[in-house]
Amino acid sequence: MKKPNRLIYLALGGAGEIGMNAYVYGYGPKGKERFILVDLGIAFPDMDSTPGVDVILPDMTWLAQQADRLDAIFITHAHEDHVGGVAHMYRHFNAPIYARPFTANIAKRKMIEQGHAPENVHVVEAMEPVEVGPFTVSYLPISHSVPESAGLVIDSPEGRVIHTGDFKLDESPVVGEAFDPDLWAEVSKPGVRALVIDSTNVFTGHAGRSEAVLGAEIQKLIKAQKGMVVATTFASNIARLKTLADAGRDAGRSIVLLGRAMRRMTEAAMEEGILTDFPSVISPEDAKNLPRENLMLIVTGSQGERRAASAQLSRGKYLGLELKEGDTFLFSSKTIPGNERGVAQIMNNFSEMGVDVITDADGLYHVSGHANRPDLERITSIVNPQVVIPMHGEHRHLRTHSKLATANGRQGVLAPNGTIVDLSGNSATVAGYVDTGRVYLDGATHVGSYDGVVRDRIKMALNGHVVVAVMVDEDDELLEDAWVDMRGLSEVGVNGAPLLDQLEDELSQALSRVDGRTVADDDKLSDIVKRAVRQLCKEQIGKKPEVTTLITRLAAE
């Protein structure tokens, strides 16, 4: 008997967390579906939980194992949590990538950086249908904090799904397309099986504000300052960059852009004709020759990134420019949860310099790029779907949004990462689960979250590390004088004696008691060394360090 076809939705990232979005849609018989992937993003590490990691990627093993059934990758917009992982993981899929012009520009740059052909990225215009496998997909313009953001209209034999991507309902966004409720109503007329929708701001009870309201307040702020003004925001927020630059120019200041990401985004926006009237900018070299009160710097690093321009300015100079007492630093951005410590450090550094720091706390200098609860309800009403599946949020966001949809008379489905939702038939059902997780880009390699690499790094950071070298001579006799090296441990114990000397003495005694059978067994010998080191360290400094034992066996000539 022929298996019936089904339409499925599956989040591999982004549903249960903020970041590393990756959503799969499939159609066909169970186990033989053809797939499309919507977005492939990254999340950013922190020194507490992921020390040394460059970026965090969703674990795409499930899809990679079935890559021959993946027909295409569609990128909704140019934010890193949606496009940042495409080039890093492209070798697993080798499927065509589709994006609108600005997003495609950014994606192509990333592909080149990772050694992939940029021709694999295909440019698609708004509402231009793309037929891939059993799906027809069109980009549906929506406003957000980056140009050419779009939802996706996904048609299959089982019906229409609308995937919102990130969005806000801004009808005067400064840069990019305004929200068009009539267009969204028009594409929803045939009936929408499911609305898969952004949940970031579901807890915010008031309607969102337009980007257009910020310019006057920012200009007023800049005009009131006597020294140099520096502002930071997301490099991808082209509208905010323009708002800041326009306000600085209108306040009589020369504009300087600092940070590679900011320059890359503005260049891409100009190449695609999105930025046509951006104020002229001057170089950092020219800025050094102008009075401070005539300068406005717009810099990267709104989330406290250590290597970004904001952090480097807070530690001293960046490209020959520095802040001084009486200058002003504006955070025209919201701190993403998890980044508070890095941002606070920058603020404190500036405070010590005598720099006045201004944040978004009063709402005058920042508006969110995501829809608030009333906006979520409005677009859901416009689309009028049978099923609402919240995505792009932590579990608490998804759960609350699902309950909101149910309270408004629709079927809300809670589907965190790994949940297969069957959208076929009269109602959506959970049809199974797949393993999901995280992969770390650690230098040039991909490391699984369960591989132990990062865990060992954290253990060493918390407890320190001791290396012990022991030697076995040609007659299989153990030399009792071990060599010890310590890292990340106190040099002196509670008894006031050097810890290194104590360790060497303790090991000498422990090794003198070892019998021949133990000497012949590397594992047993290592265990004795480890126990002796950790016991002494616990007594003397209250720590049980990580221990590495190096055993050298000399061979007779």
For the structure shown, list the relevant keywords.
single chain; 557 residues; Metallo-beta-lactamase, Chain A; Ubiquitin-like (UB roll); 3 domains; eight-stranded mixed sheet; seven-stranded mixed sheet; 17 helices
Could you please describe the fold and organization of this structure?
The protein folds into 3 domains: 283 residues, Metallo-beta-lactamase, Chain A (4-Layer Sandwich); 147 residues, 3-Layer(aba) Sandwich (Rossmann fold), CATH 3.40.50.10710; 90 residues, Ubiquitin-like (UB roll). The chain is globular, with a radius of gyration of 28 Å. Helix 11 links the parallel strand 19 and strand 20. It has 557 residues and is of the alpha/beta class. The chain has an 8-stranded mixed β-sheet with strand order 8-7-6-4-3-1-24-25. Strands 9-10-11-12-13-21-23 form a 7-stranded mixed β-sheet. The protein has a 5-stranded parallel β-sheet with strand order 15-16-14-19-20, sandwiched between helices. The model has no long low-confidence stretch (mean pLDDT 94). It contains 17 helices and 30 strands.
